[in-house]
Specification:
This protein is mostly helical and 102 residues long. The chain has 5 helices and 2 strands. 51% of the residues lie in helices and 10% in strands. Strands 1-2 form a two-stranded antiparallel sheet. A hairpin with a 7-residue loop joins strand 1 (83-87) and strand 2. Helix 3 packs across helix 4. It is globular and about 40 Å long.
Length: 102
């Protein structure tokens, strides 16, 4: 049996405060939030792109953690996803979309 596979990553505390590390974490949380909300609505990337008036490639880039979440982008996607955006640096994940109450 191989013992070379990681079951979890160990990140030294000093790396967690690095601005690049934190920015990557924000992109990953944002990507996951977009994917989770889109999936909950049963939409594919083309449908979200149409509703957000964006190119499908842009939605794919967001979901691949390649895009920094700007306020303008968050507002645009929240509107398209019929959701509010919640940012809480003290929680994991730090970012999520929450559907509006019916």
């Amino acid at each position: 049996m191989s013992s070379g596979y990681h079951t979890s990553w160990k990140v030294p505390p000093e790396h967690r405060e690095d601005p690049a590390y934190r920015a990557a974490g924000r992109r990953m949380d944002f990507a996951q939030a977009v994917y989770d909300r889109r999936s909950a609505l049963g939409w594919d990337t083309a449908e979200l792109a149409r509703r957000a008036q964006m190119a499908e490639a842009d939605i794919e880039a967001i979901e691949e953690s390649s895009v920094d979440p700007t306020l303008e982008l968050i507002e645009q996607l929240a509107s398209a996803l019929d959701a509010g955006a919640r940012i809480d640096p003290g929680s994991t994940p730090e970012f999520r979309f929450e559907g509006h109450a019916a």
